[in-house]
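Usage example:
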Amino acid sequence: MKKFLAFACSIATLAFAAVASGQFTSGAYRRGTGRTKPSLRLRTSRQIRGTPISSGAASLHSEARVETARLNVVGRDAELAAVAEFAALGAPGARGLLLVGDAGFGKTTLWREGVGAFRREGARVCLAGPAESERDLPFAALHDLLAKLLDEVGGELSEPHRGALDAALLRSTSESAADRLAVSLAVLDLLRAASRHGALVLAIDDVQWLDRPSAAALEFSLRRLESASVSLLGTLRPDGASGLLGLAADSVLRVDVGPLPAADLGRIVEARSG
Ligand SMILES: Nc1ncnc2c1ncn2[C@@H]1O[C@H](COP(=O)(O)OP(=O)(O)O)[C@@H](O)[C@H]1O
Ligand SMILES: [Mg+2]
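Running the assembly step on the lines above writes:
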């Protein structure tokens, strides 16, 4: 019964989102402001569909969110191809992909596929899924995103940087509040250190809900990473924050996630009720 209710809610959300937008077209794909089609289709949704997402560097909380998502993705061929192409790029340098759309349109679903695609490419993926209710908790998102990475690579940081991050993430007994510049420098140091071992991905679902201190530390770092192989894979509501988190606009691919076409909604209903 619980399962049925959850399923019914999902469909209702999707259908409502589609109707509310007044259109039944799938999301467009664009870089900067010019709309284009994906130049290269590396994988279709059929090939990506249903692939289990393995575990990796991430907080337990966020990892659980991804692990429970083994739903089939219906439609979204262009969006999935864009995500897969981005994951396969492997080029050095800080860059990002943002899935932008209203609530219920399927951003998280595509984001999870992106996490899986990056992992299949061998990247280390750090996860965070901040909630609106956590916006006032300083460094909550940074904890989700980087605590495990700090365990793994923290030995390569200088003592002050390690100490600053331990304080910010409440992993030390220090009474003093985390110094924000020291935390930002430490995050930069940590991301640089981790990226020396291979491609690193910061996967953030709902970038707009990042608590301000976490967002500021990430912005500070991503602006300075230059040639380090660090990617941002984010989802974002269309209103409000730019979501760039310090990355140059021309190094961030924006994938608009519009409402699903009615035919795809029908396929979801069929697949889940069968
Ligand atoms: N392409 C899709 N195929 C199958 N189910 C989908 C698809 N897109 C969204 N859903 C379902 O619709 C619901 C809302 O999607 P979600 O990704 O959470 O949206 P958002 O993150 O934009 O709020 C979820 O239950 C999800 O499983
Ligand atoms: Mg979501």
